[in-house]
Amino acid sequence: SSGINAEYGGRAVFQLYPESPKQMELITEQATRCGFTGGVVVDYPNSTKAKKIFLCLFAGVPVLGAQLPRALGTEGEDTVQYSNERQTGKKRKRGEISKKEWIQNKKQRRRVQGKEVTMDSKYTGRKRKPKF
Question: What 3-state DSSP class applies to 64?
């Protein structure tokens, strides 16, 4: 016994880890043969790590209000986000702080930690010329 109170209108939800889609079909087919109604709900179907598969079963004839729960991670799946803007090569910006200021702040943090840091010069934060 799986511990389901299979009275009229009873509900049960199982989280499954099927090895293949064929195994999932077999489980749902056997549940319907035993007189259960319901179906499979997949949360985050496009994710490999976060994907969760649930088998939702209803005992007896489904009541009018008995619907399968909505799956998570499926909002906005019907539409594709489109933007006319081009993506640049840099993904992360440091905000208003310049490269030289960021390097000097980092050096100051390391000095406070007691670590050895090279001295600041007029060349700090500049690009090096390409050499062959």
Answer: coil
Q: Which amino acid is at 28?
A: T
Q: Which residues of 83-121 are buried (b: 16+ CB within 10 A; e: fewer)?
A: eeeeeeeeeeeeeeeeeeeeeeeebeeeeeeeeeeeeee
What is the phi/psi pair of residue 86, to 5°? -85, 145
Taking only the tens of pLDDT, the chain with its 132 residues reads 455 555 677 888 899 888 888 998 999 898 888 888 888 888 888 888 888 888 888 887 655 556 677 777 666 555 556 666 666 665 555 567 888 899 999 999 999 999 999 998 988 888 888 887
| Strand, coil or helix: 20 | coil
Specify which residues 12 forms β-bridges with.
Answer: 57
Cβ distance 53 to 15 under 8 Å?
Answer: yes
Hey, is 106 helix, strand or coil? helix
**Residue of 36, 35, 43 whose CA lies nearest to 15:** 43
